[in-house]
Amino acid sequence: LSKICGENLILVHGGGSFGHIASKKYGLPGKINETTLRGCSIVKNDMALLNNHIISIMVENGMNGIGFSPYHLWNGSEVDYKPVVKSFELGQIPVIYGDAYIDRDEIKIRSGDDIMVDLARIFKPESAIFFSDVDGVFDRDPKKYKDAKLIRRFKNESISFAGIENDVTGGMMKKFHSMMECREMGVKTYLINGQYPERIGDLEGEKFVGTEFV
């Protein structure tokens, strides 16, 4: 990754099976009670383990990754990204992850897609690259319809999220709207298949496989 993007990057990851299963089981997001507090502890522990695993791989490969959770960045009214900005300016690679956090009488979840929009607004990066388990944006669910067509350059084509299974943070529809927000801020925005990370190296090339938001 560093060979393709250099050190001038910020990573954001979600929870997948590490966070969503426990969140559903314990009713997160939701009002603070005995069940949701238990869920918050489990989700935070699981997400920290995932983040530590990712950073360990980075450190082993010579990358100075440093983890951040919305739980510790929440100041009571918003996520305070000043520590992230400072880390980035020092030359570290911030690795921020979706996580549970406490807001007054509720336990909420700040998703990785929400964080991507926040960072696009703060840093105005050259590119925002989203990953999924499909090749990009399709006109309909490619996991259910074999004739679904990949939209390589998305403007305002008609697509449907009907029948797509969502997770506790909104699933593919949420990701789509987050990508649109990044694009509207003037950031080059892409969706590619995370199982083929080497595709990052051909974002604007003829062999690019994915969706560019234009």
Question: Would you summarize the structure shown here?
Answer:
This protein has 214 residues and is of the alpha/beta class. The chain has helices at residues 2-5, 20-25, 34-60, 70-73, 82-89, 112-123, 171-184, and strands at residues 11-13, 30-31, 65-68, 93-97, 99-103, 106-110, 127-132, 137-138, 150-151, 153-154, 188-193, 211-213.
Separation, N- and C-terminal Cα atoms: 24 Å
Order of helices and strands: HEHEHEHHEEEHEEEEHEE
Taking pLDDT < 50 over at least 5 consecutive residues as the criterion, the unreliable ranges are 162-170
Described by the principal axes of the CA atoms, the overall outline is: globular
Oligomeric grouping of the chains: single chain
Largest sheet, in brief, is:
4 strands, mixed
Proportion of residues in extended strands: 15-25%
Mean pLDDT: 87
Count of extended strands: 12
Backbone structural class: alpha/beta
Helix content: 25-40%
Main β-sheet, spatial strand arrangement:
7-11-12-10
Query: Given the structure, what is the number of helices?
Result: 7
Rg, alpha carbons:
17 Å
